[in-house]
Amino acid sequence: MEFLLSPLKIGKKVAPNRIVNQPMEGNDADEVGNPTELTCERYRNLAEGGAGIIFLEALTITQESRARKNQLGIYEKTAPRLEKLIQEMKGINPESLILLQITHSGRLSVADFSRVVTVYPSEDPHVHVLSTEEIEKISDAFVKAAVIAQQVGADGIDFKQCHGYLCAEMLRPANTRKDRFGGSFENRTHFFTETAKKMISAVGNNSFLLGVRFSVYEGIPGGFGTSGPQEVMEDLSEPLAFARLVEKAGFDYLNVSAGIPAITPEIVRPSKNYPEGVYRHFGWAREIKKAVNIPVIGSGYSYLRDGDNDLKDLDPKRRSFTYWAEKNIGQGVCDFVGLGRQSLADPLFAKKILLGKTSEINYCLTCGGCSIQLRSQVQTGCVVFSEFYKKILKEIQKKQRNDISRL
Ligand SMILES: Cc1cc2nc3c(=O)[nH]c(=O)nc-3n(C[C@H](O)[C@H](O)[C@H](O)COP(=O)(O)O)c2cc1C
Fold first, then answer.
1. 159, 210 contact by CB (below 8 A)
2. SS3 letters for 226-284?
3. Same domain for 311 and 372?
4. Is 162 left (phi over 0), alpha (psi -120 to 50) or beta?
5. Residue 163 Cα, ligand 1 centroid: separation in angstroms?
6. pLDDT tens for residues 221-273?
7. Which residue lies with its CA nearest to atom 13 of ligand 1?
8. In a domain, 205, yes or no
9. 379 CB within 6 A, ligand 1
C-alpha cells in the first residue's frame, strides 16, 4: 500500500491519501435543494471512511437547472445547511479534503421541475437555445456558487464539465454556435476560461481549490474527444489541449471521466457487460497526466473489487483494485484513484483498504441498481447492502410491473 497511503499536495492543501470518493448524486435534498438528514448521514459516513478527497455530488447552481427533482443546490438559500453539513464532516474527520461539484444541467434539466435549455440546437426543436446574455448569467451563477462553497467551509470546488451537462455541451465540436461560445476550439472553451478567470479573482489568492471533472471522450457524433461536428472516432487532441488550458488557467487538479450516463453509460461505468472499460479509463487518465503537471484523478475503479471480476488476467490479484491502484499511481498513470459506486456500497471502503481490513469490505456488485434509482428520480444509494435503498428499488420495480400490466 506504498502509494495509496502516501499524502499528496494538491494546490496549497494536502490530501492525506490517494483514494477519492467520486461525486455521487443521492437525489435526497429537500424542495429548496438543502441537504436533508439522509444527505447528511451519507456524507457523515463518507467522512468516517477517510478517503483523501471526498466530493460532494453535483450541486445545481440554480433551481431551474436541475436534472433531479431532489438535487442538492448551491445558492444563498442553501448556504446555511451546506455549512452545517461541512462542519459535521470536518468534525468527524478534519483531514479529508471536501470538494463541492457545481453544475448546470443544460439540456439534461427536466421540464417537470426545471427549464430545459441548450447551448446549440438539439434534436428537439422546442428546446430553448441559450442567448449570449443568458450564458453570461450562467457563468456568473457558477462564480457565485464557487464563492458560496468557499464561505461554507469547503476545501474547494469541482467545476463540472463532464457527462453531458451544460459545460460538456459547450466543449463539443458539435457546438457550432455563431457567438464567442461556439465554433472554434478557442470559442468552445471561452465559457470555461472566462468563468475560471472570474472565479479565481472572486475566491482570492488563497488555498481554496479549483478543479475540473471532464469527459475526455463522449462516444457520440460531434462529442468531445472527436475531431469535428460529424465525427465519432476518438481523437484526444482537444481533450489534451483542454487539460493544458485548465492548468494554465490556474486550476489545481483534473478529474478524468468519459461518456454521458444518459446516452453512453457503458463508457462511464465499467461493468461485466464490458470489463475492459476499466483499461480504457486507465489509458485516458494516463494521456491526460502526460499533458499536465497538476494532480490527475482517474475514474472507473469500482468494478475491480478484490479481483472478483471478468478481466482476463488469470491471477485474481492482478485484477484487483489494490493491484491497479498501486500500479497506476506508482507508474504515473494518475495521482488519485476515484471510486463512484463502490463508495455507495461501502462508505468506509478507504479506511478498510488503508488499514488492510479488506475482508470486511462490502464490494460493489456493479448491479446498476443505483443508476436505475437515479433515473427514476427517487432517493439513490446501494440496493445490495442497504435495506432502505433495497426497498426503494423494489417499489420502483413493482410500479413498473403494474404500469406494464395496465397496458
Ligand atoms: C448513482 C450515480 C450517481 C452519480 N452522480 C455523479 C455526480 O454527481 N457527478 C459526477 O461527476 N458523476 C456522477 N456519477 C458517476 C460516478 O462518479 C462515476 O464516474 C461512475 O460511477 C464510474 O465510476 P465507478 O466505476 O467507480 O462507479 C454517478 C454515478 C452513479 C451510478
1. yes
2. CCCCCCCCCCCHHHHHHHHHHHHCCCCEEEEECCCCCCCHHHHCCCCCCCCHHHHHHHH
3. no
4. beta
5. 9
6. 999 999 999 999 999 999 999 999 999 999 999 999 999 999 999 999 999 99
7. 24
8. yes
9. no
